[in-house]
Every structure is written in C-alpha cells, then in structure tokens.
Amino acid sequence: MKTIEIIPVTAPLEGIVNLPGSLSYTTRALALAFLTDGPVEILNSAKCDDTYAMTDCLKKLSIGDCELNVRLSGRTARTILALACISPSKKIITCDEAFKKRPMTDLVDALRSLGAEIEYLDKDGFLPLCVSSSTLNSGIVRVKGDVSSQFLSALLMIAPKCGFEIEVDGELSSKPFVDMTIEIMKDFGVEVINKNYKNFKVSGEYSCKTYTVEGDASAASYFIALNALTASKVKIIGLNKNSKQGDVVFETIINSGESAFDMKNCLDIVPTVAVMAAFAKGETHLYGLETLAFKESNRIECVAGELRKMGIKVETAKDFMKIHGGKAHGALIDPHGDHRIAMAFAIAGLKVPGILIQNPDVVSKSFPDFFEVLKSLKVKIL
C-alpha cells in the first residue's frame, strides 16, 4: 500500500491557492443541466471522481437500458436514483463495494410512494437496485430528513418535472446543502418556496445557458488550517465568504476562541476541526454529529482513532466528540478510504514530524491535486 510522509514546515509558507470548483455545486449543476432543454455551459466545474461518476451516469441515462455505477459518490447515488425514475428504459444502479453500506431506504420509499418501480438487487435499503419506471405521480411526497439532506435535494431537483410537493418528516440534517440546492435551482429558473424546512413547493421550468461554479469551501478549510497551524500567509483564491456552503464557517470556528461547536450543518469539515483541536489548549466539544457515521467512513470513530494514534485523548458518542488538546506526535494514519480524513491529517503533518498517510490517492474523490498544491507551496512530501 502506498504511503507518503508529510515533512513539517520550519518557516511560514507563502503562495497562492486557486480553489477547485465546489464539488457540491458541480454535481447539482450537472444534474440540472441534464434536466434543462438545450446545452448548458458549466464553468469552473470540479474535476474529481465524484463529478466523473455523475457525468458518466448522466450520459448513460440518455441511451436506453443501462447500468449506472455511482462509484463512491453519495450525491451521485441519490441524485441519479431520482433522475432514473423519470428517465425511459430499465436502469440498474450499482456502486463500489464500500458504498453498499450507505443507506438509500428513505429516498427509495419516497419515490415508491410517487409510483416508482424500484427493486433492491441485494440487501434491502442499499445499492445495487433496479429502476423500471419512467414517470412519477404528482401530489405530495413525504421524506425523512434526519439521515441525509441528499434525499430531499434529489426530490427537489426533479420536482419541477413531476409537479409534486415535498413534506419533510422529522428534523432535517445539513440544511445548508438544501439551501444550495434551492439557490442553484433558482439560477436555473425554478423557484422553491421553503416553509421552515418542513414543506417545499416548486414552480417554473429549468432554463440556463451558462453557470459558473464557485470555489469549494471544504477544500479551502485545509489551507485555512495550514495558515493557522504554521503562521503562514497563503492566499486562497475563489472562496465566496457569503456562500451557502456550510463549510464556509471553518475560519470563524477556529478563530472564535470557543470550545463547543454544533457541526450538524458543516459535517465535511469535522475532520479538519478535530485536527485543529488536537493542537489547541483544553477541551474541544463537537456535537450534532448524528449522521457522521454514514459518510465515506464512520467519521466519528475513524477520526477519533487516528487522533489517538497521535497521542491525543478523544471521547466519543454517536453524536458527539470531545478532543483533549495535547502534545501530538507522529503516527501512521489510515484514512479508512475517506478523502477528508487523508487531507485533514496531512495538515497535521505540517506541525509534527512523523505523520505518514496511507493510501493518499483517496483524495481523488474530491480534490485530486491536493498534494500537488501542497508541493507548490514548498511543502516537502516523501
């Protein structure tokens, strides 16, 4: 297995980082372009495994009976399932082995209530599955909101084509991701009326010729952390500080001077916040983590386990993590197949010697050039 070592920096770094396009906005833009009559030019799109998965699936949806491999992309899986239900022919949706543990039940149930014909091909509630229908009914559809906001976003994106209204059962997780969906749908000509994240109605038709993707706030977090940990002055280009991306709050969190943070609306930066907490004084409490176990890894236990390897005391529960800042040391870091763990702990390597990252190529899921960008800033990587 490939392993790289991050060498700590001995002087503040300088340079410029041009952020890749937002992964979240790119996948949505690709889906909405598919639903729009006429060509749509998407500028500054993210170029990574997840967007390649979405693009490949969308191309196949237009050619009749097909097998759609969403690979490891949750956004692609949930969006493509919804799109498959309003596309002709028979569609089999598959994934990489590691994705088979990620839940699909709530979205499948919602789509079935609208008349979709969906059959699980292996284990109920999970991919792979087969979609045989090509139209959905209008009316009202209910979907649970506490596992993944991607279920609601998938339904919202196809709602203008079907004429249904959406009601959410329970508390909605990761509300900023839904805000992003509503924003981009407006950019594509569709209005969404959001009644307190409990009821959603749509109006209008998709129409767009050119869409520009803003910079990725999750990617920005690693370089904001780099600046903070190493007293560097790396300039970050492309971050919209008024973005609806939940992860745009990262800099505010680490500069707040507080010790307890509700992370439910910015779960993708939990690994980076946890790494920063390892170098902070005292205890840092991260809560609102109920759905973090259903990401590319169980990010609560996996992040905690890697921090413990570095000599950091961490306490966890199903929705909570308490990190006791201390004197961290080097360790062999296993990302557990999770791109965000690999990148967050690479930043730790800029501070303490002996941080080795196993399987660093997992960053290709969202940021293939991550380690090359570090090298461009004169970070030494062995």
Task: Give a brief outline of the structure.
By secondary structure, this protein is an alpha/beta fold. The chain has helices at residues 23-35, 49-61, 74-84, 105-113, 149-162, 175-187, 217-230, 250-254, 270-278, 299-309, 339-348, 370-376, and strands at 3-6, 14-18, 41-43, 66-69, 91-94, 118-120, 129-131, 139-144, 164-169, 191-195, 199-203, 210-212, 233-237, 260-262, 283-287, 313-317, 320-324, 331-333, 355-358.
Provide keyphrases for this structure.
single chain; 382 residues; alpha/beta; UDP-n-acetylglucosamine1-carboxyvinyl-transferase, Chain; 2 domains; four-stranded mixed β-sheet
Name of the CATH homologous superfamily of the largest domain: Enolpyruvate transferase domain
Q: What is the subunit organization of this protein? A: single chain
- Give the number of domains: 2
Count of individual beta strands: 19
CATH architecture of the largest domain: Alpha-beta prism
List low-pLDDT spans. none
State the CATH class of the largest domain.
Answer: Alpha Beta
The average pLDDT value, as a whole number, equals 96
Fraction of residues in H or I helices: 25-40%
Spatial sequence of strands, sheet with the most strands = 4-5-7-6
Biggest beta-sheet profile: 4 strands, mixed
